Amino acid sequence: MTNSATGPLPASILEALGRYDTPTICNAMEIVAPERRLIGYTTKQLVCPFPDLPPIVGYARTVAIRSVLKSSLPAEEQSKRRIEYYEYVGTGHGPRISVIQDIDGPDVGYGAFWGEVQSNVHKALGCLGVITDGSIRDIPQWAPGFQALAGSIGPSHAWVHAESFGGEVRVAGMTVKSDDLIHADQHGAIVIPLDVAAKLPEAAELCGRRETPILEIARSPDFSLEKLKAALKRSAEIH
């Protein structure tokens, strides 16, 4: 059983954000928070084995893992740490998204923390998906509907274990703190500041309206450079 505390934002806002893909949310962010144009989103490519899944929107559960080095904790302490980790993942604002940084340096992705077991367990704990620069495996046995963005796909888990959780992590160029609001799909992910989240759907619609005249002429059999210039002018006048 999971404990999903009432989030800082109404569920209706998260649902509205989920109607747009992540690139559109990035476009909208440029309107409502232009100072974040160069920060707050993934900048390196991640593997998405399930590109047809819809966007996910949830609060971050942050973890740092490693797999090249065996955990130095005694077995009993390892078991205790695992339970504490699951308690962290399964409680707090919901829905949740697991954001995991692999801290193995040049050996990042050496061992997969994620596979059939963890995807199903985290789904049961109230997570919608995972964003990690580490590796994942067991793709055919993956929890249905559970999204994944990963640095790589590999066969073994090596000595993989959670080194710490609840702190700040950096995954594919995106810095994330526990409880940050995350929007993600096959393209990547972005951190949404809570104070601008409610403004993004309207800004996303504005982006769409501005693109419409350009796309219409670009797709038209009557396309011409002069018509494109006119469409660009109309687009710039939409507010």
Task: Summarize the structure in words.
The protein is an alpha/beta fold. Helix content is 31%, strand content 26%. The chain has 6 helices and 14 strands. A hairpin with a 2-residue loop joins β11 (169-171) and β12 (174-176). The radius of gyration is 20 Å and the shape is elongated. The N and C termini lie far apart (47 Å). The model has no long low-confidence stretch (mean pLDDT 96).
The backbone outline, from C-alpha atoms, is elongated
Can you write the helix and strand succession as a string?
EHHEHEEEHEEEEEEEEEHH
Question: Can you count the beta strands?
Answer: 14
Question: Strand portion, in percent?
Answer: 25-35%
Unreliably modeled segments: none
Helix proportion range: 25-40%
Whole-number mean pLDDT: 96
State the helix count: 6
Largest sheet composition? 7 strands, mixed
N-end to C-end Cα span: 47 Å
What's the layout of helices and strands?
Elements: E1 3-5, H1 11-17, H2 22-32, E2 56-66, H3 75-89, E3 91-93, E4 96-102, E5 112-114, H4 116-124, E6 127-132, E7 135-136, E8 147-149, E9 152-153, E10 161-165, E11 169-171, E12 174-176, E13 181-185, E14 188-192, H5 200-218, H6 225-236
Parallel strand pairs: 1-3, 2-4, 4-6, 5-7, 6-8, 7-9
Antiparallel strand pairs: 2-10, 2-13, 11-12, 13-14
